[in-house]
Write a structure and sequence with these properties.
mainly alpha, 81% helix
Length: 261
């Protein structure tokens, strides 16, 4: 079980940095499909892995002076996402209390994630035909970030593909620029989510070995993902992203079958 969790965390972190999706959108459904842990435990482990990955990526970009994070826009998105991350945690707890059966909660997450991923794939395929916006309002950025944070925290994916669609459409960002800005948003929202879990004492019972191992895999995967991202073109990133979305949709379908069945 340890090996599966570590491999998934490492590969998800590599791909997460390359595409700007954080990795949680891969870790959460894949580990759900393994059936080895509860939905809440996997959500927590996924969030911690994504936090370590995003922390390394943001810090390394700053130290190397190759950061393309738009602080005037993304910081406010991140502030909204941080608040949304806390709210999303509360929504998750509410749904978990509403449906005592953990399988029901997992099914709800799988259905929502599948719908979000399908929408993201459709937009990405057609994004060259879609006229984008260039928003600058700080208040609007905070509101958009709030919605992103709620969604990502509730699903336990750290941010995922929906961040990229928002950055493409509302702020006209190029693929690689959007990827870096997305990781920054994920970093802020995951910090808030972790703090909320600690303050409310809702950290699930997980193996410390798996937790530390997944965090280390997140850091290592982030380092390798950055090196790969620097060597490939944006259109290659787009193709990898779309292929990944197709795989995630299939995994979500499998998880829905498992949880409902």
């Amino acid at each position: 079980m340890y090996i599966i969790f570590f491999i998934v965390s490492f590969l998800a972190s590599v791909i997460g940095v390359i595409c700007g999706i954080g990795g949680g959108v891969i870790i959460k459904p894949v580990l759900d499909a393994s059936g080895q842990m509860s939905v809440s435990a996997i959500s927590f482990l996924s969030g911690c892995t994504v936090l370590s990955m995003s922390f390394y990526s943001v810090l390394k970009s700053k130290l190397n002076h190759d950061s393309v994070i738009d602080m005037g826009i993304t910081t406010y998105l991140g502030i909204g996402a941080a608040v949304g991350g806390i709210a999303g945690k509360q929504v998750f707890q509410y749904v978990q209390n509403l449906f005592p059966d953990a399988n029901t909660v997992g099914a709800v997450q799988a259905i929502i994630l599948m719908l979000v991923t399908i929408g993201t794939l459709i937009y990405t395929i057609n994004k060259k035909k879609i006229k984008t916006l260039q928003l600058t309002s700080r208040l609007v950025c905070i509101i958009i970030g709030l919605l992103l944070g709620i969604m990502s925290s509730f699903l336990g994916i750290g941010g995922g593909p929906i961040n990229l669609v928002v950055l493409y459409y509302f702020f006209s960002m190029e693929t690689k620029v959007a990827a870096q800005n997305s990781i920054y948003i994920i970093f802020l929202s995951q910090i808030a989510s972790l703090i909320m879990s600690i303050v409310t004492n809702t950290i699930p019972n997980v193996s410390i070995i798996i937790l530390i191992g997944m965090i280390l895999c997140g850091l290592t995967g982030s380092a390798i993902g950055r090196m790969i991202n620097a060597k490939i073109a944006s259109d290659v990133v787009d193709k990898l992203f779309m292929g990944l979305m197709c795989v995630i949709i299939l995994i979500c379908c499998y998880n829905m079958y498992q949880f409902i069945g």
